[in-house]
Write a structure and sequence with these properties.
With 316 residues, the protein is α/β, with parallel strands linked by helices. The protein has a 5-stranded parallel beta sheet with strand order 10-9-11-1-12, with helices on both faces. The protein is built from 11 helices and 12 strands.
C-alpha cells in the first residue's frame, strides 16, 4: 500500500536554548563531580523526558529545600528562585549551585536596579509560574505587582504613577506582551522599560519561525511539556498566525492521528526545553504513515552559549 505524500516543515530554530542546555549540563557535571544523589529544587527545565533522564542518572527532584539533606549538593532550576531560597541554603550551610538562566538573572538584576532607584515594579508574567515567583521574590513583598493582560493594567493600584518600571517573564508571547506594554504606557506614560527586551532571544526566535511556518502548513505540532510556558506560547502563536490546527504534544504517542486525517502538510517545532530526540521521534512517526518530504524553514541562526558556574569547572 502506498503511503500518502506529506510535506513536513521543520522550524529552525527550535528546541533547546542556551539556558536549558546549561542547566542540564550543570546537573550532569554536579553528578560527575559529587556523585549521586544530587538534589534539584523544582524540575530543572519543564520537560518530563529530560527530568526522567536525569533522575535515572541520580538526580532527585524536590519542590522544597526542606526536602533536601544538608550534606548533599542542591541545584536551583533554570527558572530562577526567590532570594529567600539561596539565603536559606546558606543558613543551613548547604552546597548549592544556581542553574538560573543568565537571561532570567538579567531580569532579576534589572528589577533590583529599579527598586534601588526608588521605583515600584510591574511584572508582566504568568501567576504561579516559577520564573515569575522567582523574579517577584527578588524584592520585598508589594514592590513587584503582577499583570497578565491589558485588562489587569486598568485595575492596577500603584503607589506613585510617576515612579514605575516594568519587567517581563522571558518566555511570553512577543505579540501579547506588546499589547500589555502598550496598555501600561498609555495608563502610566512615565513608566520605565527594560533597555533591551526581557523576552529572551530563544523565545522570540522560536515564535518568529512558527509564524513563517504557519503560512505553509495546514497543521502544526509543538513538541513540549504542558507546564512549559514557551511551548504553550508557540501553540498560540501558530494558531494566531493562521494554522487551523495547532497542538502541543509531549512525544509521538500523544499525536491525534484522527485529527490529522487528510492533511498534506504539517509544521513541527519544539519548545526551548524539549530535546531534539523527541522531535525525531515525532518525525519518525510521520514517516511510518506517510511518504514524507522534509523542508526546513529557518528564520534565524543561534550561536549563544552560557558558561557553567566556576565551581563545576574546577576538579573535585
Amino acid at each position: 500500500m502506498t503511503k500518502p505524500p506529506l510535506t513536513l516543515y521543520l522550524a529552525a530554530p527550535r528546541g533547546f536554548c542556551a539556558g536549558v542546555d546549561r542547566a542540564i549540563k550543570i546537573v550532569e557535571l554536579a553528578l560527575a563531580k559529587w556523585g549521586a544523589p544530587v538534589y534539584v529544587r523544582h524540575e530543572i527545565v519543564h520537560n518530563k523526558y529530560v527530568v526522567d533522564d536525569l533522575r535515572a542518572k541520580g538526580a532527585v527532584f524536590v519542590e522544597d529545600l526542606d526536602d533536601c539533606p544538608t550534606d548533599r549538593p542542591v541545584i536551583f532550576s533554570a527558572h530562577g528562585v526567590p532570594k529567600s531560597v539561596p539565603a536559606e541554603a546558606a543558613a543551613r550551610q548547604m552546597l548549592y549551585v544556581d542553574a538560573t538562566c543568565p537571561l532570567v538573572s538579567k531580569v532579576h538584576i534589572e528589577a533590583e536596579r529599579h527598586f534601588e532607584a526608588g521605583l515600584q515594579i510591574v511584572m508582566i508574567g504568568h501567576a504561579g509560574h516559577p520564573e515569575t515567583v522567582g523574579t517577584m521574590g527578588q524584592l520585598p513583598t508589594g514592590e513587584v505587582l503582577l499583570v497578565e493582560t491589558p485588562a489587569d493594567v486598568a485595575t492596577l493600584d500603584v503607589r506613585d504613577a510617576a515612579r514605575l518600571a516594568f519587567v517581563t517573564q522571558t518566555t511570553l508571547s512577543v505579540d501579547d506582551t506588546a499589547e500589555v506594554v502598550a496598555a501600561l504606557q498609555t495608563r502610566f506614560p512615565a513608566i520605565v522599560g527594560p533597555h533591551k527586551e526581557d523576552i529572551c532571544y530563544a523565545t522570540t526566535n522560536r515564535q518568529e519561525a512558527v509564524k513563517a511556518m504557519a503560512a505553509h502548513a495546514e497543521a502544526m505540532l509543538v513538541v513540549g511539556a504542558p507546564n512549559s510556558s514557551n511551548s504553550k506560547r508557540l501553540v498560540e502563536v501558530g494558531a494566531r498566525a493562521g494554522c487551523a490546527y495547532a497542538q502541543l504534544v509531549q512525544r509521538a504517542t500523544d499525536i491525534d492521528w484522527r485529527a490529522l486525517a487528510g492533511i498534506s502538510s504539517i509544521g513541527i517545532t519544539a519548545g526551548a526545553s524539549a530535546p531534539e530526540v523527541l522531535v525525531n521521534e515525532v518525525i519518525d512517526a510521520f514517516r511510518a504513515r506517510y511518504d514524507v518530504t522534509v523542508e526546513v524553514i529557518e528564520t534565524a541562526q543561534e550561536n549563544v552559549e552560557f558558561k557553567v558556574p566556576r565551581v563545576l569547572r574546577e576538579p573535585a
